[in-house]
Design brief:
Elements lengths: L2 H4 L16 H9 L2 H18 L1 H8 L11 E2 L5 E2 L22 H36 L2 H16 L2 H11 L6 H12 L2 H14 L3 H8 L4 H37 L11 H8 L7 H29 L1 H17 L1
Antiparallel strand pairs: 1-2
Helix pairs in contact: 2-13, 3-5, 3-13, 4-5, 5-6, 5-8, 5-9, 5-11, 6-9, 7-8, 9-11, 10-11, 11-12, 11-13, 12-13
Keywords: Cell membrane, Membrane, Transmembrane, Transmembrane helix, Transport
GO cellular component, one term: plasma membrane
Subcellular location: Cell membrane
Length: 329
């Protein structure tokens, strides 16, 4: 029997969260929170709509690029004909002022862009942050000092200003979604690195990590088999909170005109053009802004629920409560 099978974390050590705690237990705790269920359903519907955007627009008979000049009133500056932005059986959410493009099609295709950029940037942020955090915590004192100072600089940088500067110097023909992913991912990994470094410094002092070393495991094996599973819970929690921030940042860059370029639809880009139509066509402002608000709120609520579900103390409280209920029964 290996040494790591004999030695367990000490009584005073906090239990290591992560996949070892059981995904089914985390799922069960999430299902007990109505807010998490509602937020998950909203996000699932949004993701499904984004993935099925071509099918949904085909059912409606519209696309996000075709102009319909006959649906806007040129005499009034381009406001849509009809009430509520030109809503009809053909155009389910109305049309875009000035162009007559179908608003439903542009919203679902815009969801694709916003979610793709936010998720891609998140993957890059987590990859860089985890790598730098582990290297700082497990390296020598010199490496820790250098990497920690670099992380401090990245955290202190005015990210929006720097993102604007970087996106404006890149050639126009560079794919804009990919550029946003690279810029956002390369600038916003400092918080993840700090979190991983702090958690790793705690983990390396625990008994089960020492047992793995005594059992002959090399540094890479210890990181892969012992530390990374224990880091999964805090990293997932941090990522769930970071994702809505990425959505807002992408929308902000598109709103400022340096994000996704027309005619590719994006929520922030739609809001940028909608500001001049607030009085003539409020629906054009309310729909993308409301969808952005609901998406960010749902991700925030779900992220908080995931944090609670992955908290071992919360799991212990739920187990104690379950035992008490069974005892009373």
């Amino acid at each position: 029997m290996a040494v790591q099978d004999v030695l367990a974390p000490g009584a005073g050590d906090p239990p290591a969260p992560g996949p070892a705690a059981g995904a089914r237990g985390v799922w069960r705790r999430l299902r007990t929170r109505p807010s998490a269920v509602v937020a998950g359903a909203v996000l699932a519907a949004l993701l499904l709509a984004a993935l099925a955007a071509p099918l949904l627009t085909a059912v409606s008979g519209q696309d996000p690029y075709t102009y319909h000049d006959e649906l806007v009133n040129s005499a009034s500056g381009g406001a849509p004909h009809g009430a509520f932005g030109g809503i009809s059986g053909t155009h389910w959410l109305g049309v875009e002022p000035g162009t007559g493009r179908d608003l439903f099609a542009r919203l679902v295709y815009g969801a694709r862009v916003s979610l793709l950029v936010a998720a891609g940037a998140l993957l890059l942020q987590v990859l860089i942050g985890v790598s730098v955090g582990l290297a700082a915590a497990l390296g020598n004192r010199w490496a820790d000092q250098v990497l920690s100072r670099i992380t401090d600089v990245m955290v202190a940088l005015p990210m929006l200003v720097l993102a604007i500067a970087l996106t404006t110097v890149v050639p126009e023909d560079f794919p804009r979604p990919l550029l946003l992913i690279l810029v956002m991912g390369a600038l916003n990994w400092g918080g993840t690195s700090r979190l991983v470094r702090a958690q790793t410094l705690t983990l390396r002092r625990l008994d089960f990590v020492a047992a793995a070393r005594l059992g002959g495991s090399g540094p890479l094996r210890v990181v892969r088999r012992e530390m990374l599973p224990s880091l999964a819970a805090p990293v997932i929690t941090h990522a769930a909170i970071l994702l809505p921030s990425n959505i807002v940042l992408e929308a902000s860059l598109s709103f400022l005109g340096i994000g996704v370029k027309p005619p590719t639809p994006a929520w922030g880009q739609m809001l940028s053009t909608a500001t001049t139509w607030f009085r003539a066509d409020p629906m054009y402002v309310l729909l993308p802004s409301g969808l952005l608000f609901v998406t960010v709120l749902a991700f925030t609520v779900l992220g908080d629920a995931v944090r609670t579900a992955l908290d071992p103390r919360e799991a212990s409280r739920l187990r104690v409560g379950t035992r008490k209920e069974k005892t009373r029964d």
